[in-house]
Amino acid sequence: MKKKLAVLSCGWSYDFLTDFISGIKRAVDEKDTDVYVFNCYNYVEFNGYINNSGFSIYNLINYEDYDGVIILSDLIQNARVLEKERQKILAAGKPAISINLAMKDISCLKVDNYTGAYELMTHLIKDHGLTDFAWIGGKETSIDIAERYKAYRTALNDNNIPINVENIHTIPTSSYNDAYEYLMTAMKAGATKPQAVVCANDYIALAVMKICEERGVKVPDQIKVIGYGDTAWGKTVVPSITTVRSNAEQVGFEAANRVLNPTGETQMLKIKSSALYRASCGCEGKSAPGGKSYALEIVDNLNQKEKFNTQIEMLNDTFSEATDVFSLLTNLEGLFQKSHLFEGSDFCIFLKADWSSVLINTEEKLPQNLSYGTQVQAIASIQNDKKYPREILNVRDLVPSKMITEGSSIFLFMPIYNHSYVHGYYVCKNCLNFLNSNFGYVWTKTFGNSIERFRKRNMFKQMSMRK
Q: What 8-state DSSP symbol labels residue 172?
């Protein structure tokens, strides 16, 4: 009988996530096991409201239906959500493993961020003779970043190098934009230049490289720049960035093997990270091996972003041009029949059974509702690149029977919602396009917001007719 593996994820760390799922795929290939990835995005709305409604995608999971569970707990980073799912998993008696964050009575597999980061710091101190360092990291509570920072401090202490607190920099998030804006302000304030800047990830390191280029500071001759994560951008930029590889693909492979072949006891395991010495610390030429292919990959990624933006525009136009529920349904089917490059060749968009009445609901604001009910209806369905008739589905089935085939498949689920009201979900087979960059976040948010705008427009139309 075919096995099923559930993966709970939050998609912001897409570099790690895509490699991690590649490892899972390698583990289940030719083992007649389907992988169900339940992915979402939490975010802060314009008014400061922290929107965690996306975690409702986990409400689709009946753990009794799975042979194992993998929780990317350090990506989810929501104690209430994690505890709720932990209790449900234990009640179902299913083998489970948590990634990077210990959960009571559940095995844990960690990326040993410390080892690779400490190794790299020791290399800078011993092999390059550096004694003056700066650290830049975000305010996130990520265990990964905390371990990298611990390695930074420990390596300095172990080599009797004093830690300059003025060179410890904390930015809002570990992103390129926040790092760049922070550094621009710091430069104007006359910040001193250390021998090396050690960054919590490659994106911060890229921002440092950009500032150095703009200021005429040569890397690595005048300053050395260190990242973490081994991203494609870090490999391609000149000089290529010295960094640490988290070995996420191997973590995914080991996690899948552990839950599908449980030992019956709770375990704590680690996968070591690896230091990669490149040009930004002066250890090799101007570009990393394979730089040309990585550059082509980035050019392709930029082209994909342009195509994705076009798809989002068409999705917005589809909702804007619809005059009623019927025309909206017709327009959506027409759009996805014509264009579904990112949605995949096999996908369904399901809305809750009462979706049509919700779209004509005239309340000022829909009440909070994070349940998917017992049945959903496909409002758009593409199978093998062709339009498939709409159908009603029991929520517990999750995907139409026609999508279940022999061999191993990966199903990706994402919620469709607006504010605190869940409208339905998207599911695709063997397509992870939405895990690249922030495509999934933009697509699901656009879809949910478009539904609400359509509903509000219909509400105002009905109100004007009553006058």
A: S
Residue-averaged pLDDT of the chain: 89
Q: In whole angstroms, give the CA distance from residue 460 to residue 467.
A: 11
Would you state the structure tokens that stand for residue 358, as one six-digit string? 């919700």
- Please check whether residue 250 is in contact with residue 270, taking contact to mean a CB–CB distance below 8 angstroms: no
| Contact residues for 283 (Cβ-Cβ < 8 A; gap 6+) | 242, 277
Return the pLDDT at 287.
44
Per the model's pLDDT, the better-predicted residue between 234 and 119 turns out to be: 119
The answer to whether 70 touches 6, Cβ cutoff 8 Å, is yes
Q: How big is the chain, counted in residues?
A: 467
Element (H, E) at 228: none
CA 122 to chain CA centroid, nearest Å: 31
CA–CA distance from 127 to each of 30, 114, 197, 284 (Å)?
Answer: 46, 19, 16, 14
Per-residue pLDDT tens over the stretch 208-235:
999 999 889 999 999 999 999 888 788 8
Q: Could you tell me if 360 and 329 are in contact, meaning their C-beta atoms sit under 8 angstroms apart?
A: no
Among left, alpha and beta (phi > 0; psi -120 to 50; other), residue 407 is left
Helix-strand-coil percent breakdown of the chain, rounded to 5? 45, 20, 30
Judge whether residue 189 has pLDDT over 70: no
Residues with Cβ within 8 Å of 127's Cβ and at least 6 positions away in sequence, in order, are none
Q: 244 has which bridge partners?
A: 275
* CB neighbour list of residue 133: distance below 8 Å, 6 or more residues apart: 124, 152, 156, 161, 164, 167, 194, 195, 196, 197, 198
Q: What is the CA radius of gyration of the chain?
A: 24
Could you tell me which of 171, 140, 113, 138 has the C-alpha nearest to residue 42?
Answer: 140
In sequence order, what are the residues at sequence separation of 6 or more whose Cβ sits closer than 8 angstroms to the Cβ of residue 326? none
User: What CA dihedral angle connects 366, 320, 447 and 461, to 10 degrees?
Assistant: 10
